[in-house]
Structures are given as C-alpha cells and as structure tokens.
Write a structure and sequence with these properties.
Strand order of the largest sheet: 3-2-1-4-5-6
CATH superfamily of the largest domain: NAD(P)-binding Rossmann-like Domain
Shape: globular
CATH topology of the largest domain: Rossmann fold
Order of helices and strands: EHEHEHEHHEHEEHEHEHHHHHHH
Strand content: 5-15%
CATH class of the largest domain: Alpha Beta
Helix content: 40-55%
Number of strands: 9
Structural class: alpha/beta
Radius of gyration: 20 Å
CATH architecture of the largest domain: 3-Layer(aba) Sandwich
Number of helices: 15
Largest sheet: 6 strands, parallel
C-alpha cells in the first residue's frame, strides 16, 4: 500500500518523532511524503542521518522536539528508552507546554503510560495511548492499524497525522483501552507466529514441496497474517533483516503475561508459545526476526536449515534495547 498524499491540518502540521527505529522511521517517512513538516530525534546517529536524507529536521533531544512541534509521536522499544524520552533531563516532559498532544505508539505496561499522561497533564499537555497492530514490514507499506485511546476530541484533532501512516485508525475509548487492545492483538500474534512455524516445519518434515505448501496454506481456511507475512521468511530461513526483533518482542510477551496474570485469565496457548521465543533467545537469535521460532522448531524436528545458529560470543550482550 503506498502512502497517500494528505492535506496536513493547519493546526497540527508540525509533527515530531521521538524514536526513529523500524516503526518511527517508517511512519515519519510516510508523513514527509504526505507533506507534513516533520522533526525528529533518536540517540542513534545512523537513524538520524536516514531521517535527514528523507527531508526530516533532526533535533538534539526529545525535549527540543516537544518544544517546537504541535504533535509528537513516540515510538520507543524499551523501558529505558521510554523513561529517557519522557522523564529524562532532556525528555519530553521537560519542555512540554499547554496544548501539546503526544501520541504514543509504543507497546508499554499501562502504568508507565499513565505516569507519563499524568506528568504531561500538569502542564496542560495531552498524552494519547495509540499503539499499533502490524509488523515493521507492514509499517513500511502503511498497512498498520492504530488503536487510539484518550479524550475523543484530542484523538480527532490528530487523526490526520495518524491516518498519514496507518490504513485504519480505531478509536478504542478512554485512555488505556488502546493498550489493552494491543496486548490482545499481540497475544494472537504470539500464538499465530508459532502456529505458522509449527505447520511449516510439519509440512517440510512430511516432504511437501515448500512453495506449493505455503501458497496452498495461505489460500486456505487455516491462513493467518503471520503465515502470510512471516511464512516466506520461515521457508527461506531469512531472519537477519528483522521487522520485529526477538529481544524487543520478549518485552511485549512479558507485558502480555503480566496483564493476563493480573486479570487471573488463563492463557494456555500463549503460555505454550512463549517457550519457543525463549528458546530462540537462548540460541542467540535476539536480533533476528521473530520468525526465527521456526528455526528452533526445524532444529527440534531435524529438518535441514540453511542458517546456522548466530554466534552468541560474536554478538556479545545483545539484550540491551533502545528506541524503536
């Protein structure tokens, strides 16, 4: 899906991004193409160079982005990045002002978002809880859904921005409802990704022709978006250009587990699936795409794979996470 040209709203044409990783980079690219004036910050210089090459205005900090923009979109992949971006000495809260709207597309525990909302409210700024459903590859083609929650009038005010990088914007209700929807969406993704990997491994083990198998399954009643999006990666054993890294997704898995535990809601399929993601991390696949759960299953099944385990020694400590 190509990014449609939009007419930026007069009151919200200056958009800022804090976090220019896989998601933030894709979203800012779409808004720049649609004619928005876009500023941005990320601590990684390579991400800033790419953003600048597309016409974005780089800024020295999250605070600087908040000081000059009408709307700020935050796309943050780790707890540490979230704390720094919002509450650090050069964070958003330090320079937030009355009327500023911050749309947070990150996946974070709800209590962290509530803390940020309350801090921003003290200076008259508004935080909207706007997580997305979709992979990095889908973000590149504007094929994601936004689950927006918070004051309805504020969501409507920034709808042109959200629609500039998403195919669908859902208004979920009061603040936090968006995150709850996101947790449940990722609950399904967690299971469906493993289910696709298990089915592909079983099919390969049985001797089916790989491409025919994937095409037939994708066109049948058992298909899923994960089979369609990650099935080709699983067949090709290509996991080193991730649209969602295993280590980043582990954070999401932990959030879902804690969410369900607090509600005392049984999640037997989700719990069984978690073990495959843990195994992928144990094999040093933390920086690979989550489709790598298929590599784990192939190894367990004795199915030949073209990709060896990554060298944990060469990768060093890869469990550190940054802005996404």
């Amino acid at each position: 899906m190509s990014a449609a040209k939009a007419s930026p709203g007069r009151d919200h044409s200056r958009v800022g991004f804090v976090g220019l990783g896989i998601i933030g980079s894709a979203f800012s690219k779409h808004l720049l193409a649609a004619g928005f004036e876009v500023g941005g910050f990320d601590p990684e210089s390579a991400r800033m160079r790419l953003f600048r090459s597309r016409g974005g205005r780089t800024r020295s900090s999250a605070a600087a982005v908040a000081a000059e923009c009408d709307v700020v979109v935050t796309a943050l992949a780790s707890f540490a990045a979230y704390e720094a971006a919002y509450f650090g000495s050069r964070g958003i809260v330090a320079r937030a002002r009355r009327g500023l709207i911050v749309a947070d597309v990150s996946t974070m525990p709800l209590e962290r978002k509530l803390a940020a909302r309350d801090r921003l409210a003290r200076v008259g700024a508004t935080l909207l809880d706007c997580p997305i459903s979709g992979t990095g590859a889908q973000a590149e083609t504007r094929d994601v859904a936004v689950y927006a929650s918070g004051p309805a009038a504020r969501v409507e005010a920034v709808r042109p921005v959200l629609e500039g990088f998403a195919r669908k914007v859902w208004y979920a209700g009061e603040f936090g409802a968006g995150s709850k929807l996101k947790f449940i969406a990722n609950h399904l993704v967690t299971i469906h990704n493993v289910a696709a990997a298990e089915a592909i491994t079983l099919g390969l083990k049985s001797g089916l022709e790989p491409k025919l198998m994937l095409a037939a399954l994708s066109n049948g009643a058992g298909s899923s978006r994960m089979l369609e999006v990650r099935g080709p990666l699983m067949l090709a054993d290509r996991y080193d250009e991730p649209t969602m890294k295993c280590d980043v997704y582990q954070k999401d898995i932990d959030i879902i587990g804690e969410f369900a535990a607090r509600l005392r809601c049984p999640t037997p399929l989700f719990d069984a699936s978690r073990a495959l993601y843990s195994a992928a991390l144990g094999q040093g696949r933390d920086k690979q795409d989550t489709a790598a759960v298929c590599a784990v299953l192939k190894e367990m099944a004795g199915v030949a794979t073209a990709v060896a385990r990554p060298s944990s020694f060469a990768r060093g400590n890869t469990r550190k996470r940054g802005m996404g």
